[in-house]
Amino acid sequence: MEAGGGARFQSLFFYCGESAFDMMDRFRAEVGPDANLQTLARGINVVALSQQPRDIIDLHAKMFKKHGITTIRNFDALNDIRNLEYSGERIAHHGLHHQIVVTVMDLPPGCSGSHTAEFYLDRLQKILDSDIPFHSICFKDATGTANPRKIYDTLKGARTMVPENTTLWFHTHDTAGIAISQNLAAIEGGADGIDLAKSPVCGGTCQPDILSMMHVLKGTDFTLDLDYEKILAAEEAFEEAMSDYFFPPEAKMVSPTITLSPMPGGALTANTMMMRDTNTLHFYPEVIKEMAEVVRLGGFGSSVTPVSQFYFQQAYLNVTQGKWKVINPNYGNMVLGYFGRTPVPPDPEIVKLASEQLEKPVFTDDPLDILEPGIPKATKVLEENNLPVNDENIFIIASCEQKGLDYLLGNAKVNVRKKSDEVEKPAPAPAKTAAAPAPAPAGPRSYSITVNNRIYDVTVNEGGAIAAAPATAPAAATPPPATGGTEVEAPTPGNVVKILVQNGDEVKKDEPLLVLEAMKMESEVKSPCDGTVSAVHVTAGDTVQTGDQLFTIA
């Protein structure tokens, strides 16, 4: 059973005000000692959105073993084998089953040079030639876009390369509506296992449904060997438990255009929900279209967390700020090599832009070698906040940063959308002695309505005639008063998580000023120059748009 992963770990601290370690303990208590519980790790990111140093990578495996996990499925979005070496070694060292991963997807039209069956088998050969200890192998398509023939050729080729008893697994999502055909191709190619989900969270951005896959295997040489009546009972219980939770409609939809611009299921809804929060959802079709170019020029890293977020953030900036006018720091660091080697070299012009805007050179060494130890840093944070210093709390601070600290301090905000939260309470009935309401005034009445994200002014005349016209653009918001100095603007839309400086503080160039959450990622906004903070234009909890003023540095 898959019992957690990167998002499944962080979301409990980020949105639910709950501990993922408590969840693991309860999960193990329910299933007993013998069940195989699996979680997901992102190579040197482990379950964080940022890269973690060696001591935290070791602590990840130690803590997950302690809290009942059996198997860790371990991937690197760039398919850089170096990023799997230390993480895989520590997973095996702590007595966990290490399922090593090759990440797959289809490239946008017109792209070539990577993500073929030959490329995946080359990655597999590098794993087999390395000293990385592993117990099984998974081919993971987070986007659900790899065409079935390629999946068949990959699994068939892999089966001839690995020792006879090696377990081969295939994982995909149904975002593009082809997951069942992918699964069938993987099974016929030699896979031993596939991932499935149950209603109401099957299909769409999740895995295909268990019952549907059982049906497709009828008449073949294969079976899942499951009792459909037990599956139905489990689905009924789960649907009841989830009945009050809001599911974004796109989470359940098949999106054929994803085959042209691969966006993984785990990131798609995180991005659209963030765009809802920032009133920019109308840009979504353009952003998905723009992703094709961002992937093509970025070196073909697999579109899976965190690289999928880098792609989406850069595509969003290209749509809202103009093509390549602004390089997202995460995307820029990826093309410059700070996350590892991309499958093919990124476009030289994009690398040049990234180097100029981020003021950083190209990096070709091991990313782990430039990361400072994490345990001392996390310990200091705990001590400064009078919190217990233990392995669990150290890992929470390292992997969840400010939101982890908020949870430990009891300041976590629950942000879970429920249907019942959206239902307005009926107005109380008027008292019997209340005067009758005044009649509606005669004459035209004016309304404002929104259709397809465009606002229209509508007038209804006394005789019933209706006139409608696009609304005039609202007056620009009054900018903060000019105080002189350098204005620091929001690089992306997002939510202000924490403000790190205040009026009067002296700051140095590149000193962090603010933590911004944007599209599932937290990032620091840094000072562009030396100076003194002369104005702070936002507060923690604010939602900002790209270009909004955050600070003035005098």
Look at the structure and give the mean pLDDT.
87
Strand share of the residues?
Answer: 15-25%
Give the strand order, joined by hyphens, for the main sheet.
1-2-3-4-5-6
Q: What would you call the shape?
A: globular
Rounded radius of gyration (Å): 26 Å
Name given to the CATH homologous superfamily of the domain at 261-371: Conserved carboxylase domain
**Count of β-strands:** 17
Question: What is the helix tally?
Answer: 17
Low-pLDDT residue spans: 431-442, 473-478
Determine the structural class based on helices, strands and strand pairing.
alpha/beta
CATH class of the domain at 261-371: Mainly Alpha
In CATH terms, what is the fold-level topology of the domain at 261-371? Cyclin A, domain 1
Cα end-to-end separation:
56 Å
**How can the largest sheet be summarized?**
6 strands, parallel
What CATH architecture label of the domain at 261-371 applies? Orthogonal Bundle
* Fraction of residues in helix: 25-40%
